[in-house]
Amino acid sequence: MTAALDAVQGRTLASGPVRRWGLGAGLILALAATALVTALSLSVGTNQLPLSTVWHGLVSPDDSFASTVIASRVPRTLLGLLVGAGLAVAGTLMQGITRNPLADPGLLGVNAGASAAIVAGTVVFGSLGQRAIFVAVPGAFLAAVVVYAIGSGRSGPTPVRLVLSGAAITAVLMAGIQAVTLTNPEVFETYRFWVVGSLAGRPSEIVDMIWPVVVVGLVAALLLGRPLNTLALGDETARALGGNAGRTRLLGALVATVLAGACTAAVGPIAFVGLAVPHIVRTITGSDYRWLVAYCIALGPVLLLGADVVGRIVARPGELMVGVVTAFIGAPFLYVAVRRSGSGL
């Protein structure tokens, strides 16, 4: 079955030793870019630090002011690495299971479900603080389950049904959120701080809470690479090759929901990362999800942390929230990627 699958996908997927070597070298460069933007995240801020000082502070921390500044920036940077990779991979999975190139983590109601859960939890329990993740992830998961159930119908889920049901559930949930927040000032204040999407001001404990979830989700996404390649050929072809389209969609939706829910709970809804990064990566790797997921893990943090660094620079001594910056710096890259892909958009 493996040989047949590779033969059928030969025109669209990366194949051959030379191509694989090139993609491997490109992945190394992507990881180098991730390391560079990580160093910049630790260096840039109200107190600018040379990269040499950052390296010394990481390798040999002491009681100096520079080491204290670096230590305060480490949780924010780690959060950016996790959330960037998680959102980018979630977007890739969404696009794969729906066969919709414009899909992102909000397509199946994930962001809306997490937001609605945050609002409902705040109404019942008051300010959630670090407990937000325990409320947002189930909310995102429940919304995705409802969308999947509505979009399945009697003949199973289809891309069109999933997209339409996701749009409908998102509209209903967002209407409910607006109704609650506009009539409850205390809930509005909490929601306003969370919904803007930011890596700043998040407690370091958030990293400890989400990293196991994100790491497991990323590993699961890597394992779904070949089934997603089969699914991309169409349900009938996938069944002929021994695949299970329904199971692949269910597992892909589950992993994407967990990733997006955990990331959204941690930093708030950040748009564009899950939409732009897969498009950008696809111009490098083609349609092979085995490489797509790996590259998204490397380049998702580059976009998110890069946006965070830019937000600190352009509004110094203050800063722009990363959710605002991602739209501005991501749109040109997405436009170029879509044009090069020949999608006709």
UniProtKB/TrEMBL annotation:
The organism's place on the tree of life at top rank: Bacteria
Give the principal location in a single coarse category. membrane
Task: Enumerate the Gene3D superfamilies for this protein.
Answer: ABC transporter involved in vitamin B12 uptake, BtuC
Spell out the subcellular localization from the entry: Cell membrane
Give me the segments passing through the membrane. Answer: 21-42, 77-94, 106-126, 132-150, 162-182, 209-229, 250-277, 289-307, 319-338
Q: Name one GO molecular function term.
A: transmembrane transporter activity
Write down the SUPFAM superfamilies for this protein, in alphabetical order. ABC transporter involved in vitamin B12 uptake, BtuC (SSF81345)
Q: Which UniProt keywords apply?
A: Cell membrane, Membrane, Transmembrane, Transmembrane helix, Transport
What CDD domains does the record tag this protein with? Answer: TM_ABC_iron-siderophores_like
The way this protein sits in the membrane is described as: Multi-pass membrane protein
One GO BP annotation of this record:
siderophore-iron import into cell
InterPro entries cross-referenced by the UniProt entry: ABC_BtuC-like, ABC_transptr_permease_BtuC
Q: Which GO terms describe its cellular component?
A: plasma membrane
Q: Which family does it belong to?
A: Belongs to the binding-protein-dependent transport system permease family. FecCD subfamily.
**UniProt-recorded name of the protein:** Iron complex transport system permease protein
